[in-house]
């Protein structure tokens, strides 16, 4: 009987011997929510992933349109950044997939052994392709439909195109990746839609209003400039995108996601210990 009681005690404690009342319940519940919400995303079909990515590209272009219109009218990047929050709110309420919001959740799912690494790479690749196509198409429509914003599109796109590969631009990309991943975590951490909207607006103010370097968002500015005849081409965009997405990954994965997973490592270990091999196709 004593051995059975000891086994029961071990099952009810984590690797540090802590009983449930002694654990950080809020952190562990949040990690459980991350895995539970993230697993279905990695198992979507190719058409579902592609459609979600394209929709996100279209929705985020609404934020770009709002940014350009407000900046043209007021000359204030901070107000324009706040207006850009329209795009983040659309992503939130529309449940579409933006590439840079796909760091913390899918990685947690894979590390919890609820999906394989191939699923993660597939998710990233298809989502990003959809974002870029949707954004390219939407920015063409914006440039054609709002010719009065042409000068603003060209000026903003040229700013990013001519920014160069410097420590400053890389760190701006790191900060943007970290902020976007924090936004993902804040949205999961509350069920209050008002709080989620506020988080979206404040993140937009930081990322767009302070001209941080966001690989997908700023790509839309560059696409808009190309459509409007800014004088640079897709080669310039490719170089900008590669530099920026690297910084976003360092901030989103290497900084924010890593530290969040370290904080939840006990719960992550429990998921890994109990996950059947069949969960990892």
From TrEMBL:
UniProt GO molecular function: formate transmembrane transporter activity
Major localisation: membrane
Coiled-coil zones: none
Gene3D superfamilies named among the record's database cross-references: Glycerol uptake facilitator protein (1.20.1080.10)
Cellular component GO terms, alphabetical: plasma membrane
Membrane topology: Multi-pass membrane protein
Localization annotation: Membrane
Record-annotated membrane-spanning stretches: 49-70, 82-111, 123-145, 165-183, 195-217, 237-262
Region (Disordered): 1-22
Bias (Basic and acidic residues) ranges: 9-22
Keywords: Membrane, Transmembrane, Transmembrane helix
Tagged with keyword Iron: no
Name the UniProt record assigns to this protein: Formate/nitrite transporter FocA (FNT family)
């Amino acid at each position: 009987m004593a051995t059975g009681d000891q086994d029961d005690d071990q099952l009810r404690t984590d690797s540090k011997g802590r009983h449930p009342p002694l654990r950080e319940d809020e952190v562990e519940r949040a990690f459980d929510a991350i895995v539970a919400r993230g697993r279905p995303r990695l198992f979507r079909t190719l058409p579902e992933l592609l459609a979600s990515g394209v929709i996100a590209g279209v929705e985020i272009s609404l934020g770009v349109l709002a940014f350009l219109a407000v900046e043209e009218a007021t000359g204030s990047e901070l107000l324009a950044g706040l207006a850009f929050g329209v795009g983040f709110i659309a992503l939130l309420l529309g449940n579409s997939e933006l590439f840079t919001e796909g760091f913390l959740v899918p990685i947690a799912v894979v590390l919890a052994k609820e999906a394989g690494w191939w699923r993660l790479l597939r998710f990233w690749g298809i989502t990003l392709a959809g974002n870029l196509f949707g954004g390219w198409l939407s920015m063409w429509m914006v440039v054609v439909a709002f010719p009065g914003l042409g000068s603003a599109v060209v000026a903003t796109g040229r700013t990013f195109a001519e920014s160069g590969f410097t420590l400053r631009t890389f760190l701006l990309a790191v900060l943007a990746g970290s902020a976007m991943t924090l936004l993902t975590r804040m949205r999961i951490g509350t069920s209050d839609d008002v709080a989620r909207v506020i988080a979206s607006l404040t993140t937009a103010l930081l990322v767009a209003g302070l001209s941080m370097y966001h690989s997908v968002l700023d790509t839309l500015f560059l696409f808009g400039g190309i459509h409007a005849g800014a004088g640079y081409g897709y080669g310039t965009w490719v170089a900008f995108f590669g530099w920026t997405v690297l910084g976003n990954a360092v901030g989103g994965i290497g900084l924010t996601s890593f530290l969040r997973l370290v904080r939840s490592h006990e719960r992550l270990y429990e998921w890994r210990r109990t996950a059947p091999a069949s969960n990892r196709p």
